[in-house]
Amino acid sequence: MKRRVAILPDAVANQIAAGEVVDRPASVVKELTENAIDAGAGHIRVEIEDGGKTVIVVSDDGSGMNREDAILALDRHATSKIASAGDLVGVATFGFRGEALPAIASVSRFLMVTAEPGGEATEIAVTGGRIDRVGTAVRQAGTSVTVRGLFFNTPARRKFLRSTSSETRAAWEAVGVLALSHPEVGFEFRSDGHGRLAVPPGQTAQDRLAAVWGADVVATLVPVEYAVGSVRVSGLIQRPADARPTGRRTQLFVNGRPFRDPFLIRAAEAGYRSAIAPGDRPSLMLRVEVAPGEVDVNVHPAKLEVRFRERAAVERAVEESVRHALGKLESAAPLIQSRVGDPNASPVPIDAEAASLWAGIEGEPPEAPGQTFGAPVLQLQATYLVYDGPDGVTFVDQHSAHERVLYERTMEGFESGEVASQRLLLPITVDLVDEELDAVETFRGELARVGFEVEAFGGRSVVLQAVPTPHPRFDATACFREMIADLARGRFGGWANRLERFAATYACRAAVKAGTSLSEPEMRRLLTDLFATRLAPHDVHGRSTIVTVSRDELERRFGRR
């Protein structure tokens, strides 16, 4: 009987593995650089030519290997990282499968020179998976790997490589990600003789990110530091005012390992809810730390994906961490970068006069320790509130501030069913067009929940029997008209949640307008209400409510330093 099942030759098995872990020059750069990091390198140099299609060289000053280990490392599944299946749980190193070196060597002209500290250097040359020679060389401790003619013996794969510029960009991104994950290691990247990256070891995470993403991007980011249960989240996220629909950057790490996870990115974006305009996509770099046994990193051949034991808890922690960071004053757009807030400052006093003038909720709003705006509070151009903060002068856009207050109160009212409404002695008749009448019917329930009691009057008219009472200068008729027009024309479209869309529309139209003069008690009450919200620095469109000019900047401008 003819045999149909056979064991693949090693050369074929290695090329199949190469298809899993090495699909382009950037994959080679990634695998070799990860090996260098695992070897304890303090500095790694990566050089490519023609996007890596012609030459790739990765050199490090790590621990290196002796001759026996260097030869063994070219066998499939040879690894120093694990000894049993149990070691796969919580593995902390980058390379542990033992596939990268033989896979790369099987589809290239491969040369490795390696030496242990104080030992003799070994040189191994491989062509298409076949060892050509093993000899001695001169080298300090560490390893250098040169890969030439990638996919020279698999032309079907080589023809799928992209342009030189595309492959260069992918290799650069591979090095950049690893440089971000290990700021304690120095990195150098050169392409066709030109330096693209040169960073020293021991940088701060923020300085390293500036080197990789650019200082302009990093200037728009604010820190994240949050822990809930066994999950800790840290990193940097973009201020809502700087988020744009295109051009964003994202990077995730779990226990120091870079990975991809669109669901965690979505969870982070959920933390921006009601702080950015629909369609904007903020840049972010987040580091997730969990117990090693709570994450499985052995679910993808190229180790690009991971599996969490408690995914819901991790997603919740990521969303809450972003929300927590955006609630801090430093997430507002400063005129000049500066520290905002003083933990020793006392909260603003609340007086009865201000409370009575600024209606909306019963009782006093919660105090906001660490934020102070004291006296005096000034109004500029009937639009901006100004106060002397602990580190400089702070400006608040009164409309944006009140918009944030009303949005959060409206959402709370939807949950509690409590609204501040006033029945009218003389009902108001409002004429609408067809699409606006449709919007009234669509949002009739939400209108009632914020205080608008609307009845049909025949034809294209409706009657307002009751209206909300958000503040003394509220124009109910104008607010209703503007809201219905916005809802009918989709001006506030893009909100995933219907209640949030309605609340945002209402808050924008009901908030006190720019150009409205406020008394000092009203200003102080508005600021107090603002700082009691969860996302005080941002309105519902993603614009900043607060801008701070630092004391240092003022002194510099006036020649005091």
Give the number of helices. Answer: 18
How many strands appear in the DSSP assignment?
Answer: 22
The CATH superfamily of the largest domain bears the name: MutL, C-terminal domain, regulatory subdomain
Describe the largest sheet.
Answer: 8 strands, mixed
User: Could you name the CATH class of the largest domain?
Assistant: Alpha Beta
Secondary structural class: alpha+beta
Largest sheet: spatial strand order: 5-4-3-6-2-1-7-8
The tally of structural domains comes to: 3
CA-based shape: elongated
Based on CA atoms alone, the radius of gyration comes out at 31 Å
What do the pLDDT scores average to?
A: 85
> Could you please say which CATH topology of the largest domain applies here?
Ribosomal Protein S8, Chain: A, domain 1
Distance between the termini: 93 Å
Which architecture of the largest domain does the CATH hierarchy give at level 2? Answer: 2-Layer Sandwich
How much of the residues is beta strand, in percent?
A: 15-25%
The unreliable regions are 80-92, 336-373
What would you say about this model in short?
The protein is an alpha+beta fold and 561 residues long. The protein folds into 3 domains: 10-198, Heat Shock Protein 90; 220-326, Ribosomal Protein S5, domain 2; 352-548, 2-Layer Sandwich (Ribosomal Protein S8, Chain: A, domain 1). It has helices at residues 10-21, 25-38, 67-72, 100-105, 155-158, 164-181, 205-213, 215-218, 262-271, 311-326, 352-357, 398-416, 434-442, 444-450, 476-489, 498-510, 520-531, 551-557; strands at residues 43-49, 55-60, 109-115, 121-127, 130-137, 142-148, 186-191, 194-199, 221-228, 231-238, 250-254, 257-259, 284-289, 295-296, 307-308, 378-380, 384-389, 392-397, 421-431, 453-458, 461-468, 546-550.
